[in-house]
Amino acid sequence: MKHVYFFGEGRSEGDGSMKELLGGKGANLAEMAGLGIPVPPGFTITTQVCRHYQEHEGAHPEALEAQIEKHLQLLEGATGKAFGDADCPLLVSVRSGAAVSMPGMMDTILNLGLNDEIVAALASAAGDERFAYDSYRRLLQMYGDVVMGLKPETEADPDPFEEILDAVKAEVGATLDTELSAEDLKRLVERFKKVIEQKVGRAFPQDPKEQLWGAIEAVFRSWDNPRAMKYRALNNIAGLLGTAVNVQAMVFGNMGEGCGTGVAFTRDPATGENAFYGEYLMNAQGEDVVAGIRTPKPIIELAEEMPQVYEQLTGIRSKLEQHYRDMQDIEFTIERGQLYMLQTRTGKRTAFSWLRSQVEMVHEGLITKEEAVARIPADDYSKLFAPILDQEDIANRKLVPMTQGLNASPGGASGQAVFSAEEAEQRAERGEKVILVRIETSPEDIGGMSVAQGIVTARGGMTSHAAVVARGMGCPCVAGAGELHIDYGAREITVRGTKIREGETLSIDGFTGDIYSAAITVKPSEILQVLTGQMKAEDSLLYRQYAEFMGWVDERRTLGVRTNADSPRDVATAVAFGAEGIGLTRTEHMFFEGDRIVAMREMILAEDEAGRRAALAKLLPMQREDFEGIFCALDGRPATIRLLDPPLHEFLPHDAEGQRDVADVLGVKVEAIREKVEALDEVNPMLGHRGCRLGITYPEISEMQARAVLEAACAVHKAGISVRPEIMIPLVGHVRELALQREVVVRVAEEVLKEQGLSKAEIPYLVGTMIEVPRAAMTADEVAGEAEFFSFGTNDLTQMGCGFSRDDAGRFLKTYVAQGIYDRDPFQALDQGGVGKLVRMACELGRKARPNLKLGICGEHGGDPSSIRFFHDAGLDYVSCSPFRVPVARLAAAQAALANE
Ligand code: PEP
Ligand code: MG
Hints:
There is one protein chain. By secondary structure, the chain is α/β, with parallel strands linked by helices. Helix content is 45%, strand content 17%. It has 35 helices and 33 strands. It has an eight-stranded mixed sheet with strand order 14-24-23-16-17-18-19-15. Helix 14 (369-375) packs across helix 20 (541-556). The longest helix has 26 residues, at 609-634. It is elongated, with a radius of gyration of 32 Å. The structure holds phosphoenolpyruvate and magnesium ion. Magnesium ion binds at residues 772, 793, 795-796.
């Protein structure tokens, strides 16, 4: 078996297509060399060897040694130098490189092949002692750390090498490394060797071959170091063989005059502008540019400093873009006026840069529209729409976050900390900007949440109430910031000893989960400004490129995209973002506003049916008005409206003060309220008296809601706007539940149509159900007999399918994901192997029983790209998600369609 592949100008054994085997770096070095771009020659040891190493307790395949020997000889031939030779030494770098780039996660060793004897020879060959000993001390430092494991013992300890370096600098009064003389560096080398021997118990190996093997093994070991594992977990990178090892002839950017090193992007990674973007340092090596010890210069200055090299570099820039047909991230070194490329890879960039670079590449004729659509990462796409914390402001003032939570809803926000929804509303009324900070939120907080600039919770995960509602509103949210100790009574938060009182300013970054105890400038998204008419399209390049790109997306998309929305305002936003209808209106959200909650509580507290009906009669006109607003905003698009779902206790206050207030308003005894709250108390309310179970025990609730929907539909129809109501029964597990509720809805609907003198052809209403109880999925053929549509409630289906309480699973799901039990949180990314099977089964059974059954999904997964791909493949008609995720869902749906072509 071939374990080692050579690369060098005109002689590469591999190419750019071999990323799995050679890693991205190895494959691209081979490819660049094949293109005639100057690359120092070298060889790549395959990722299969890494896998072998992991599986055989650190042993390598038998043939490896001979193959490395042979390739070392090839390398010596290509460079005219010899490894371990004192007269004309070949020095190499040893770098990791997996199929997917993991910047900075694994280790690199430079200048390998130096020892006490060779360093002296190098000094005279280069005519530069300083350079030779600087290279040697760097090798000792990297090798001592990476291979021999000499690291700080605790986080608080200084790096043992940096400590010595600082001491030597202090002794000679130098502030920069470059101020050290050759003699200083020699002393540094001696001290580095001594500290290695003392602390590790072994001397730095003088034999270059031993160094090489030590470095190769260290790279393989680094595949499983904690930071690399964490990076893979965070970025959903799984299924790779391991890392390859690249051994490459050294070129030196630190050999004095005419030498340097740099990194660059072929386009701007922040904005996407077609401009060469990068930085470099003269007389420097490798890490110096990124390490921040010396300030690098912008790449354009190289045009003055070394015009020929700059011209060659810009030539390579366009050659690489033409060849790879995407933005590249490159590393280069200049050795005595000679340019070498050390790396090229697809550049990581912001959502803004993705959009601009791809749209412009289509205009330039470099890529097709389909390629642009397939490439832009859908996971990051919603970042285009959120307000943003001004990063310049943060950098200028050197602000650092006081703590962190989950990046639950993207966007930046700044405002006064408040600890209750009421306080949030009062301050917002006075025109103040607030950040609502709660231990966790509940539907009662909705008023405060809707006026807040941002929301922070100390508890709860990515599908907690705060996270879901915030994403729905496009409100930035940091959830589950566990270090926050919130004292509602004292109206203050403590974080690691620092106190923040009510009214003091907080800023949050929902992209990262960072929380700052300072005011930071916030900028709104231009796209939103144009969509809401606050800005002209011609003034926003971002908007124009977004609109053009979304046109390409919709050309390819076959899956419909609807929105989860409960108010005309949300509907309008979603429609502006391209929603084709409503997939879920959670009617209960409407009951919390203003007087409604009073009537709702009256209904819950009523002793009998007559009392309930009296309270429902007060709610009817309010609901009707809500639905009218929604139908008007939809302008003929369909609306799936769900009947009441949550357990009733959610509408009642649980604290004594709240209960007293309600007693006063309703004119009943506080005991009556307390008793009702106790009577409604359930051990697991998410499995209790909720969903269609409410309508089955109190059919008058469903009657009122069906009437409100139909009356609203008739009124809007009469006003000349067509309507397509779809009434949805929640939490059905047994077909008879649905049959009973359907009967109620149809009876009322027919009554209303008759009263209004309209026909079903004019108001083409549908009755359907959510599929969110496993039993309903398994008996979907029976259920379809009573349903004209299914909408998968994958939040509840995940809760019941996996047996995880949606309210409490956040406590342990992180551990589950860390241990690889689930690849991702199943409340965020559909558990395709389990819950997904229930979805597929229900689709098949349902369509068998009713071929024209309409299928949709309205759980949180409707906005998750990997889940959308699954729903496309499962044959659903549409996905539904919160308004701000609509463009993401459109993009993910188009990508799913393209992937199947
Ligand atoms: C669901 O269960 O997926 C759903 C959409 O309903 P809710 O989250 O309101 O229970
Ligand atoms: Mg549900």
